[in-house]
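Input protein
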Amino acid sequence: MAKSPPSKPLLADEKPLRSRPRKPRDSLQPRLPLDPMPARIEPCLALLKPRPPIGPDWLYEIKWDGYRIAVHLNNGNVRILTRGGHDWTHRFPAIEADAKRLGVGSAILDGEAVVLDEQGRPNFAQLQQSLGGRGGKLNSGASIMFAFDLLYFDGHDIRSLELTARRYFLQSLLKNEHGAVRLSEEIEGDGREIYAAACEHGLKGIIAKYKDSPYRSGRLGEWVKVKCVQSDSFMIVGYEPSSVARGGIGSLLLATRKGNDWVYVGSVGTGFNERSAEDLRRKLDRLTRKTPPVKYAGRRKNLVWVQPTLVAEIEYRAWTHDGKLRQASYNGLREVQDNAAVYQLDSPPSNGSPA
């Protein structure tokens, strides 16, 4: 659990941290050294590694499987921004309502919006369904936020503080919260054992964070993600029709980006349900084209090619020697607003691992 840093013994353990909304400043009073509240902060991103870093300088959390969001709270007004900077406040009504109840004047919380399955595990497909699928307009009342960082608090930009200090304030702020805004708990122990336990319980992986690091936007290595099952975003470039499969889709044809070109990386024929397959088929049939957008040397006939527009989240075990996905499973479409980057192929995959 987060501990009070020696330099910040400001909070009592028995009560959650609270502040009152700020009133307009009295012009007769001296100006206080307050920091302007940022309209948006580019998120800190985790660097993918095959093994977790170990040692006392690292803390660990569950890797949540959802949409990265930032909750901006300012004098009772709430904005919920996606990773791409789009305002989705109206799409997460429960998170918005619980954020207003935190009782803090101003704050920016960094976290992940998820939907939990019956076993209490985050389920990306259920999150998408609750939002109406890619391009859907539904509001997801089932979504909750797991907050893992606090970037701005009560008029002060605290990104320069070390992670342990930021988490100390965050933990106090969310101490009694069990609703739609919850604390992403840190896990103490050996990173290798925590990773093994996460995989054993069917979770997506873990995140390791350097304890003394400030909050810096971008993918700089101070946060590290280790996945139990590989999961990346790939472009859908076509599909194989089927008269017996759900939605008439036998399999999706996938591609990755290499330079300015699309490269075919195989197909996926599992992970669909009736509803998702039918919805996907309708979207694909509006994007058909006569020529393939990739070089295709396969033997299958009667393939339907589409404009490279829809981005699919795909789980897979490894890469084959000829650069194709192995044991792939469809996990849903990514939203444009989520700013999910399509997998980049710098060189052909080898030895069962992505480049």
